[in-house]
Fold this sequence. Notes:
By secondary structure, the protein is mainly alpha-helical. The chain has one domain. It contains 3 helices and no strands. It is elongated, with a radius of gyration of 17 Å.
Amino acid sequence: MNKKPSEDRVAFLEEQVNDYMKKLLVDSPYLVLMYFEKQVKRYSTMLEQGIAFPASVEITLQHLIEHYSSLISLLKEYIHVQIKAEKNSSGDFMT
């Protein structure tokens, strides 16, 4: 049977989040989210300090910030889906 696109998206999100949880040796998507938020802040601060980095380092930091920011969005979407699923499974359909 074919899955609905929303089911495919949830499966994709779950696979990605589980992979990052395994790589970071954590047991919660919130901890993965905190890690990436911390890294974005760290790299942004490095660029904002005005230290003269070689161009290749600046470009790498910018790419990491962009990549981690997209992962933060993915994690927030996953967490939102999980919270919604938990509410629906608890019988609280009025929310």
